Amino acid sequence: MESEALRNSIPPGRRLPFFTLAAGVIGAGAAVAVVPLVELPGTQLPLEFWLMAALATFADARPFTPPGRRQTLAVFPSVCLTFAILLAWGPGPAIAVQAVAVTVCSIRMHHAAWRAVFNVGQYTLAFAAADLVLRAAGLRPYPDELLSFGEVAAVVVAAAAWFTVKYGTVTVALRVRFGGPWWPLFRRALVWESLTYGALLLLSPVLVAAAATSPALVPLVVVPLYAVYRMARLTEEQEALARRDPLTGLANRPALVAAIADQMTVHADRAARGEPDCRFGLLLLDLDRFKNVNDALGHEVGDRVLVEVGRRLRTAVGPADLVVRLGGDEFAVLAPRLTGAAQARALAGQVAAALAEPVRLDGLPLDVSGSIGVAVYPDHGSEVATLVRCADVAMYDAKHRAAPVAVYQFESDHHSPQRLALLADLRTSLEAPGADGSDGVAMHYQPQVEVSTGEVVGVEALLRWRHPVRGAVSPADLIKVAEHTAVMRLLTLRVVDDVVEQVAKWSAAGVQVRTSINVSIRDLHTGEVAERLADQLRRYGVPPHLLQVEITEGALMADPRRVLATMAALDRLGVAISLDDFGTGYSSLQHLRRLPLAEVKVDRSFVLGMAHDPDDAAIVCSIVELAGALGLRVVAEGVEDEPTCRRLAAAGCHVAQGWFYARPMPGDELVSWLANYRPWPPAR
Ligand code: C2E
Ligand code: MG
Ligand code: MG
């Protein structure tokens, strides 16, 4: 929430235009006010005037200022009385009484002096406009008799003129002060404030009529005034409640969405004026393992933890930052002014530090650390939904990397519009190949070598896709996007066809190597891969032992039961199964024993580091030993240098694959490569 001090201050760059405007309003107000004030009737004013003046001053001593809004429009009940004074005694007395009411209110609310003077200027102009309408309608002097329908209509028009001038100048002033387009604010004034001020202003002619009957009736206006005040307050409170999280008292998701949209308007406007650093940051925080707290200690304890997290977040960020609870254990921080991602990351670091210390509840320390995703406007998105999605992607990225903070990176975003467009292009290529019959998809093959003899014992088929415009696309990225869509099926069938045909070609050329095909999670959920393989093997007359299927450890763990049916079908077909990327997917050792596996491939992240990292070397050695003991062949992938080869040989690893031997190459190059291949280690 913005402090009063902040509301009184004007951003440095806007002081000149704002004070020029303020001086204009005050000057015009003073000029308009001079004549009626000189003509003040003074002591001839009756009792009912003094009653109204006293009530006006009293009513504004405590105006209702809606909480939380930056560009707030407070409710000043005095206008009912001062407008009545305008009707009955003219603009001079109305302006004088309003000036006193504004002064009292400004002292009570600690407003800067310029603000009080500016407000008086606005009122003066508004009263002058209303007075013009009344004069034009022949309501000067104001009749003591009953008003005709036409005269009442004129009073309504005068009230409308008052409102338009008052809120017109408020809107212009706020816009000059804070920037942004003027129309949304004026529209908001029309929708919300017009009802409140309509009630206040149109009560005035009734009050004047009542006062003409008896001054004793004037104080009764306090009751409807109080009702209007309550109505405004309740509406605002209800609106505020709808934007608040009841548990932590923080803002909620709708409030965040509205605040982001507000910031976007303000920043776009600043950028259009050429101001530098028009950025803001969105941080999304998800607590780690919060579910465990809820499950183990109950929801009551969980709630207390969330309240404490909210408190810590508020103290960790600046006064202008908005802290939000999105629901469950998800929080957000909107940082309205930033110079860039580095500053957003620093703020996220502050937030992470605030959560580093465990929360102590009833003496029990509970870990509340979380993962924070950061997105920056406009770098990562210039629409609300995009920005929120980017922060969400970054948050999951942080979780996957077990890092406290991650800034949005396009590479981690598998569902960005660009990626989805890529996928659509792949589907088009597969379904409708180009004029030359090519779909840009090609298989490359990387040799696998028996570590002890240097003999080539197999190849792995690896996908390559050349996008018609973007060029080569990383297969790992492509698979991550395609994996959860129906395109994956098309792609895998295409790969199976290509590889079996290639194996048949090699066989015809006298080359017989076991060829491994990678399949993804989705492929294993139906039996289609096994069926297609069986068909193609039959069609080309290729013996099944020349084919092998690699499934990743992650895919196996995602749904072991469904995968098992496909594995059994492949096993019946006589096609061996290899467990890829082993060591990254937390699979149970039970699986190694129970599943029909022929081979385990140690993930390349361990192999790449094993020459200089003793931990990686220890992991590779244990996998070799364990899988070897279970009768499985062990393949090390990512072998880039000779020291790694030596270590693998010493560890007893069976097969190695990597750039040290050969990069993946097109199928027809393999035959000549094999012809020139010199085994490593050299035969003794
Ligand atoms: P993977 O199955 O683990 O494949 C091994 C990856 O290691 C390949 O990356 C290969 O080019 C790379 N590699 C081989 N030797 C070395 C080395 O010495 N050093 C390093 N740093 N890397 C090496 P690639 O071709 O980019 O493929 C990445 C991943 O994409 C594969 O990982 C596999 O999961 C997936 N993939 C590739 N082709 C297919 C396919 O046809 N179908 C499916 N479902 N997935 C595929
Ligand atoms: Mg593989
Ligand atoms: Mg692998």
Distance from first to last alpha carbon: 79 Å
Give the biggest sheet. Answer: 8 strands, mixed, barrel
Proportion of strand residues: 5-15%
Number of strands: 17
Q: Which ions, cofactors or small ligands are bound in this entry?
A: ligand C2E, magnesium ion
What's the Cα radius of gyration?
38 Å
Uncertain parts: 1-6, 68-72
Number of domains: 3
The number of helical runs is: 26
Secondary structure class reads alpha/beta
Briefly summarize what is shown.
The chain has 684 residues and is of the alpha/beta class.
Tell me the layout of helices and strands:
Elements: H1 4-8, H2 15-38, H3 47-60, H4 78-89, H5 91-108, H6 113-136, H7 149-178, H8 183-213, H9 222-242, H10 253-272, E1 279-287, H11 290-297, H12 299-316, E2 322-327, E3 330-338, H13 341-354, E4 359-361, E5 364-366, E6 370-377, H14 384-400, E7 405-407, H15 417-431, E8 441-450, E9 456-467, E10 471-473, H16 475-482, H17 487-508, E11 514-519, H18 521-524, H19 528-540, E12 547-552, H20 553-558, H21 560-573, E13 576-582, H22 589-594, E14 599-602, H23 604-609, H24 614-629, E15 633-637, H25 642-651, E16 655-657, E17 665-666, H26 667-676
Parallel strand pairs: 6-7, 9-11, 11-12, 12-13, 13-14, 14-15, 15-16
Antiparallel strand pairs: 1-3, 1-6, 2-3, 4-5, 8-9, 8-16, 8-17, 9-10
Helix pairs in contact: 2-5, 2-6, 2-7, 3-4, 3-5, 4-5, 4-8, 5-6, 6-7, 7-8, 11-12, 12-13, 15-17, 17-19, 19-21
The chain binds ligand C2E and magnesium ion (2 copies).
